[in-house]
Description:
The longest helix is centred in the N-terminal third of the chain and has 19 residues, at 2-20. This protein is of the alpha+beta class. 25% of the residues lie in helices and 47% in strands. It has a single domain (2-104), classed as Nuclear Transport Factor 2, Chain: A, CATH 3.10.450. The protein has two helices and five strands, in the order H-E-E-E-E-E-H. The chain has helices spanning 2-20, 97-104, and strands spanning 26-38, 43-54, 58-70, 81-82, 85-95. A hairpin with a 2-residue loop joins strand 4 and strand 5. It has a five-stranded antiparallel beta sheet with strand order 1-2-3-5-4.
Amino acid sequence: MIELAFLRELGLPILETMSSYGDNQLFEYARIEKIERNRQNDYYDISLRVISFEGAHDQPYKLINITFRIPPGESAKKYKVISNKAIISYKVKNITPEEVEQLSKFTK
């Protein structure tokens, strides 16, 4: 339940990030893949994935992996910042409906 609440809070920054990279789609099946804490510099790197879609859950489907740094701190000078989160990584891969089915099994 904590993961779902955290992903809900990240919903708008995820959409804004996708849009800033030209992926003007909606998403679902969000999943946090990893959280790393940097105690020395007091930030967290949150890696997550979402599956994006067009219209009423239509193709093309994309697997989007994003890593946010919260708070952005000094990394704001090096990386794009959206909603007070530095975007450390943004990767996109087109996927098939079969891949969507496989990837969504663990996020429902």
